[in-house]
Every structure is written in C-alpha cells, then in structure tokens.
Task: inverse folding
C-alpha cells in the first residue's frame, strides 16, 4: 500500500467557553456583600500551522478528530476562569482546506509557518457580578459558556513544485527526474511504476534552481478517474511550467503526436485553466532507433495543426539515459519560469467569505415549524445560542430567557401562527408550555 496520502476528511471541534459563576461575598465585615461570581474562560481555537517537514496527510488517516479544550469555569472573588490553550495541528505545505458541508475553500496553506484558525473557541459565560444593577443588586444569574465552532473539513494536498513532468506511463519521466535532481524515484519497466508524486530540486549550470515534480503517468480518461485518474492530476495545478515528456521512439506502439493530444485533452478536461501553463515538449529516448524520423513527423504534424496566431511550444530532443540535451532543456525551463507568473488556483466564488462572528442583523432571529406530534419547534442561530448559554438551574436565568424570547417577538409570532394556551413548544430537547 502506498504511504502517500493526499486527501483526508476530518472533524474539528473548538473548545466551549467556561460557564460563568453565581457567588456572593460573605466576609464578616462586609455587609450586603453583593455578587462575586467571575466569568468563564475562552475555549481553545483549532489552528492549522504549515510544517515544511511534513510531506503527506498520512497523520490524518489515523487521527480524524481534533478537539480543543474548553475554558475553565468562572470562580468566586470575581476571578475569571482560565482560557484554554489553542490546539495546534501541523499540516504539510500545499494543503487546501475546504468546508466539507458547503464545499467552499477556507484557506490555501502554502508558506512555512502559515497559520489559520479553522474553528473558533466559544467565549466564556458571564458571572453574576456582570448582571448587578441598582434595581437588582444581588442577581442569581450567570451564563453558560458559548459553544465552540464545530465543522467537518476536507483536506487536499497539492505539492509545491515549479515544474511538473506529465506524460503517458513509461515515457521516462522518473528517469529524467533521477538524472536532473538528487531524487531517487522507483524506476521499473512496467506501467505505473510511479504511484506517488516524486519531488526534486534542479540546479542549472548558470546557478538557477527550481523544484520539479514527477507526476504519475496519465492515460486517456484520467480526468474521469480512469487509471490513477484525478488522484494526482490535482498536483499539476500548482506548477507554473509543464514539461510534456513524449516517447519519440514509439516503443510502446503508440503514435507520439496522438500521445501529445491525448495528454493535453486530459489536462483540459480536468481543469481548463491548466492549459494556461506554458509547456515545453520533451522528446525523450532520442538514442533509440526511429526516434529521429518520429520527431521529424511530430514537428510537421504539430506545425500543420497549430493555430497560426499561437506560438509553437519549444521542443527539446533529449535522452535521459545518455544525458543528451539536458543542459539546454534545463536552461530553457529556468528562463521560462523567470517570466511566468504565479497562477491563481481558485476563483473568489470558491472561497468562503471572511467569517463574521456576530449575528447577521438582516437574518431572521428565529424560525417556527411544526413537529409530527403537533409541538411548535423554535430554531435559529441567535435563539439557539441564547438557549445554550442560559443556565436553567437558576430561576432568574429562566425568567430572563423568557423575557428575551418575548423581546424577540416569539410570543406574538406563535400566537399569529395559531398557538393556544397549553400548546407544547420545543427548542432542541427542551420543552415548555405556551402560556397565552
């Protein structure tokens, strides 16, 4: 089994805020001591941090749940509970993070040390010292902590390389990588020897350097999942220049020009924007019989079928085995990289808008529906958060929650929908009777 893993689905849960406390001063020489309960501490965030030492998402195969600690409860003497430490999760460079439910991209982590909060911890609940007023100098009210954010994430690793080697299986990509870099990919005389992307650094004679990725061989239908399919096509997306390796000896019995068209079709079918990347055609295995004749026919066919307004891609005849033509190829690649800008991977429509952690004033505060047992069901982010943060062990807190519902217009809305005295009203698992 391959030890390379480039996708993973995980669940993250930020810490809940600590509950506020109800307490009163009881010193002997402090008459009418008053409230003294402190606030709860903040729950821990879940933070992704890029670690350049990681190369795969393998760690997420065995650990799919990440939960930060909750904040401490408030204490007496007006002391706040301690905030929880953030949970740091290390991810490799090139990790794209999506919300699994919406499909929106949260962030693209590409720089070493880059951080991103994927789940925000809940704020601590207020203690009763916060609710003291001249009318109610000794309140027995406190809040529960706010729930931490919980979400399911889809992680996708796209390796960071300046140049990508593409082509059919057994055209010599791995051999080419092994002779131009210090990488040691597995090389064999059979299809799909390469089953994981291999990465190596090239240093040209002029001192230029760039990263090259040998990507597993493509076949027709790869963009629809045939063969290794889209499993590794995603890694081409980060590259700025594509080296299209073609077996000019036709040793597999295929036509080199047909190979060229087939691979480009797969790239285009997977992501049309891949065709924006400049390509250099690498005519490999020129030490083999018939290669020179095949290259001549390839160039003729390419010129005949290219749009007169388009610039023909550069073609470099090489032999990975005898190292013929490699220096010219590498110099041309470095030169093309120098004038090729970074490509934007994602449209704004794919990115999740910056999160707003308040309430949307335009959004309805609550929704009313009817359950199968004829009970009225109240829902809505604002209402449900008020409910979760209410301490139902305290009568004053319950009365405060009832006043909040009335202030939101819940009573009037239920009455308008036909609710009668004694009807059952449900919020989550909590039930109470409607009183008209």
Result:
């Amino acid at each position: 089994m391959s030890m390379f893993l480039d996708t993973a689905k995980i669940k993250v849960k930020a810490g809940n805020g600590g509950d506020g406390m109800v307490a009163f001063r009881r010193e002997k020489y402090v008459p009418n001591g008053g409230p003294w309960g402190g606030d709860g501490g903040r729950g821990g965030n879940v933070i992704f941090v890029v670690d350049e030492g990681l190369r795969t998402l393998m760690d997420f195969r065995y650990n799919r749940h990440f939960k930060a600690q909750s904040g401490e409860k408030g204490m007496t003497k007006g002391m706040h509970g301690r905030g929880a430490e953030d949970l740091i999760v290390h991810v490799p460079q090139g990790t794209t993070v999506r919300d699994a439910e919406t499909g929106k991209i949260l962030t693209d982590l590409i720089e070493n040390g880059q951080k991103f909060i994927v789940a925000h911890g809940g704020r601590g609940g207020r203690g009763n010292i916060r609710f003291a007023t001249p009318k109610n100098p000794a309140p027995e009210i406190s809040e529960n902590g706010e729930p931490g954010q919980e979400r399911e994430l889809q992680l996708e690793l796209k390796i960071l390389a300046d140049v990508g080697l593409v082509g059919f299986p057994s055209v010599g990509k791995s051999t080419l990588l092994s002779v131009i870099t210090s990488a040691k990919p597995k090389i064999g005389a059979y299809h799909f020897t390469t089953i994981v992307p291999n990465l190596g650094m090239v240093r040209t004679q002029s001192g230029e350097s760039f990263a090259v990725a040998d990507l597993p061989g493509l076949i027709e239908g790869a963009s629809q999942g045939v063969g290794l399919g889209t499993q590794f096509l995603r890694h081409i997306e980060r590259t700025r220049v594509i080296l299209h390796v073609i077996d000019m000896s036709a040793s597999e019995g295929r036509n080199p020009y047909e190979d060229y068209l087939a691979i480009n079709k797969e790239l285009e079918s997977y992501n049309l924007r891949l065709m924006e990347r400049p390509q250099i055609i690498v005519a490999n295995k020129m030490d083999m019989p018939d290669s020179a004749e095949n290259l001549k026919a390839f160039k003729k066919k390419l010129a005949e079928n290219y749009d007169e307004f388009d610039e023909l891609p550069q073609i470099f005849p090489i032999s990975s085995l005898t190292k013929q033509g490699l220096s010219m190829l590498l110099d041309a690649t470095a030169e093309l990289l120098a004038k090729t800008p970074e490509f934007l991977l994602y449209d704004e429509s794919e990115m999740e808008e910056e999160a707003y952690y308040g309430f949307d004033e335009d959004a309805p505060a609550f929704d009313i529906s009817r359950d199968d047992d004829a009970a009225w069901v109240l829902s809505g982010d604002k209402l449900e958060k008020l409910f979760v943060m209410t301490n139902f062990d305290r009568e004053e807190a319950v009365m405060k929650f009832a006043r909040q519902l009335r202030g939101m217009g819940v009573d009037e809305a239920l009455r308008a929908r036909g609710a009668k005295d004694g009807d059952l009203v449900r919020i989550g698992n909590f039930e109470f009777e409607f009183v008209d």
About this structure: Residues 256-270 form the longest helix (15 residues). The radius of gyration is 31 Å. The longest strand covers residues 150-157.
